[in-house]
Amino acid sequence: MDAIRLSPPRRLSLPVENRWGAGDMSVLDFGDPKRPVDLVFVHANGFNAMTYRTLLAPLSGTLRIWAPDLRGHGHTTLPTDPANRRGWSDHRDDLVSLLDTLDGPPVVLAGHSMGGTSSLLAAAERLDRVSKLVLMDPVIWGRIVVTLFQLPVFDRLASRIPLVKGALRRRAVFDSREQALAAYSGRGAFRGWPEMMIADYLADGLVETSEGLTLACRPEWEASNYAAQSHDPWKALKRVNRPVRILKAEAGSTCFPSPGLPGLPHVTVETVHGGTHFFPMLKADVARDALFDAAV
After folding, report:
1. Per-residue buried b or exposed e for 54-92, using 16+ beta carbons within 10 Å of the residue's own CB
2. I want to staple 221 with a disulfide (CB 3.0 to 4.6 A). Which of 29, 72, 118, 203 is the partner?
3. Digit-coded pLDDT (tens) for 53-64
4. What structural domains does the chain harbor?
5. Using alpha carbons only, what angle is made at residue 79 by residues 196 and 123, rounded to the nearest 5 degrees?
6. What is the pTM of this model?
7. Measured between alpha carbons, how far is 246 from 176 in angstroms, rounded to an integer?
């Protein structure tokens, strides 16, 4: 098992076709390929599955883990069209397609930020394929805000969201990976990250083009993920009659739910003390323990 744990993940390419277009979803496969998949882990907006390699690899001696690249990220080739996007139904449906390829017992579905929310939305569509959910600071606004985001007028206001503006200003092309690593290390969202984790992000986060090394997740696609918020995670929480464990950042959280949610006895919410939105990177032991506890 030590050899399996220390070996790099295998890269799978799964065909996906739905109303959002056809292509291949790239999936990192950790652990013993002879056992069924135990856990599916989904990354945050702008990142990719490889970003979480050092979080997931230590679990692969015991668990088999699939970590997909969402549409518009990493090595996944599914088409992207930022225009007129309203919500994350495309990510939901892509994950439903991934769940449909699994022929073993129901899996633990987990994710960080947008990956957590997209996992929740997919689980609500495929309850028979999911045993539990572990959501790490998922993007779940308050109920009133979620209702307002479904109004057409909010489409015209999306460009004013600070995260949208920041994503659109993001540098998209670098001369070398070393230049990119220097640009990210210790700055912005990457502040405090281990250098190896930033290098893993860049390994699948940059692609060679005629322009140079370009972000696999284009700034306009990252921005559209921040702007498209008409999906309803509260409705999904009600539909998912499976244990849902939410780990919420103490500072800078994107997750509105708090402990003791009325009418949702299957949902537990815990605060990661001292944790920011990026606690899976900065407090990987907390995130890893939560995944292990759910899957064994």
Report:
1. bbbbbbbebbbbbbbbbbbbbbbbbebebeebbbbbbbb
2. 72
3. 999 999 999 999
4. 2-151+223-295 (3.40.50.1820)
5. 75
6. 0.95
7. 38
